[in-house]
Amino acid sequence: MSLDVVILAAGQGSRMRSRLPKVLHTLAGRSMLQRIIDSAKQLSDVTLHVVVGHGADQIEAALAGQPDIHFVYQQQQLGTGHAVAQALPALGDGPVLILTGDTPLLTSATLEQLSAGLAQDQLTLLSVVHEDPSGYGRIVRDDSGQVTAIVEQKDASEQQRLIRECNTGLMGTTGALLKRWLPALSANNAQGEYYLTDIVGMAYAEGVPLDAVQAGCVEEVSGVNDRRQLAALERWLQRQQAEQAMAQGASLADPARFDQRGTLTLGRDVTIDVGCIFEGDVTLEDGVSVGPYCVIRDSHIGADTHIEAYSHIDGASAAGNNQIGPYARLRPGSTLAAEAKVGNFVEIKKATLDHGTKVNHLSYIGDAHIGQHTNVGAGTITCNYDGVNKHHTEIGSNVFVGSNTALVAPITIGDRVTIAAGSTLTDSVEQGLAFGRARQTVKENWRRAEQDDER
Ligand code: UD1
Ligand code: CA
After folding, report:
1. 361 is catalytic
2. Residue 453: which residues within 8 A CB-CB, separation 6 or more?
3. Ligand 1 pocket, 138 CB below 6 A?
4. What is the spatial distance between Cα 368 and Cα 335, in angstroms, rounded to a whole number?
5. Could you tell me if the CB of 165 is within 6 A of ligand 1?
6. Residue 46 has pLDDT above 80, yes or no
């Protein structure tokens, strides 16, 4: 049966003190809202409704390209009950999950648990026990343990404020029940809002099956209201990911200084020094070592490669036994065959280095292919851009490129060619030794200016 998922994201989130709507703030590289959407999408046969109001344009723009999301507009933010009511016309009578856009670490397993058995008319809440429950709606139970209501902090009696079981804001019910209950809500409470949580009392009064499942983990259901809470959840998640990495056989110099903003696939005996950031989809095969303060995004690093400190690697692949950095920059489309080396202050873009080729110092290699066992001297530049178009540089195998060479593309350098240091080459070279610089002249009788001469 199809499942309607309503995600509330119309509030301003004023405590973030931000121009960006709260739900667009990111946690481990993805916005809070995107995280919830991604978790919800893992359930089968879902229809997603996102309730937007504050910053609706920004939120829609951020979710552009995800055509399966249905936006619902809440012009005025009159409360969570009012927000869900705006989605009613789009809901069927079957199961509905209500989620909030500011609980970024919600897992699909919990959503699965909450949506199980929602076919019949019932109301299931997700609750959590907080050490300090202040600010949250409290789950009120009678002597038999039956849930009877949710009372918001501002409406709670002294006695009720002692309750530590809190509403996470997540609940599951059916469209048929919501269509009956929501129009009956009143704003007669401390905040003058239409509380979604008032449907709990209605369910109890009508004898509709009503229960609260407790979340196992506080962080997973924690709502973010300010940047401090966002940072706390970020650190918690990073710690979990660091522990996962170690469980897979990686050594982390300091699990507290490890940031994974995407998926990280790890071989055995990978070592990662402090301050590294992994973004997107990264694979580090067996025996890879990553030095301190490297940023690696969407890249595949083959076995026994050593990446030295402060290297930035993006959209690159290294076949294995490579030496990279320190201070190397591999940009998208960089491909290193086995045993290729890229040294300090070298930038590689859309270029392939074949087996054993070395670019060790201070160079830019862009839009190029270099054959095997070629040595590219310090300060070599492929001049790939003519101001309008990019051009290709082809360098053969066993080539020796002297230091400070400029290769003006398009250009082809044949196998075993030697290029003299300081050359600027504009024409292709098939074989032999190429000079592209002025011949040195020496004026032996030249006399340097001296003090006396100046007068
Ligand atoms: C809500 C719950 C509270 C629960 C807490 C958990 C209600 C009345 N209270 O309180 O029981 O313990 O969450 O974090 O539901 N929103 C709209 N439109 C509105 C109002 C809110 O879309 O008119 C959205 C917000 O953007 C947010 C979510 O609903 O994503 C929750 O709203 P918020 O104001 O943060 O509710 P809380 O006071 O935290
Ligand atoms: Ca909240």
Report:
1. yes
2. none
3. no
4. 10
5. no
6. yes
Q: Please tell me if the CB atom of residue 3 comes closer than 6 angstroms to any atom of ligand 1.
A: no
**pTM of the full predicted structure?**
0.93
What separation in angstroms does the CA of 26 have from each of 56, 141, 312, 441? 17, 36, 22, 62
Of 2.160.10.10, 3.40.50.720, 1.10.1200.10, 3.30.360.10, which CATH number belongs to 249-434? 2.160.10.10
Cα distance between residue 227 and residue 367, in whole Å: 42
Task: Measure 159 CA to ligand 2 centroid, in angstroms.
Answer: 22
- Give every CB contact of residue 162 below 8 A, 6+ residues apart in sequence: none
The pLDDT, as a whole number, for residue 406 is: 98
For domain 3-221, give the CATH number.
3.90.550.10
Helices (H), 6-79: 32-41, 56-62
Check pLDDT > 70 for residue 453: no
Closest C-alpha to ligand 1, atom 8: 195
d(CA 289, CA 159): 57
Is it the case that residue 454 has pLDDT exceeding 70?
Answer: no
Rounded CA separation 271/284 (Å): 10
Mean pLDDT of the chain: 96
Q: Where are the beta strands (DSSP E) in 160-286?
A: 165-174, 210-214, 250-252, 258-266, 270-272, 276-284
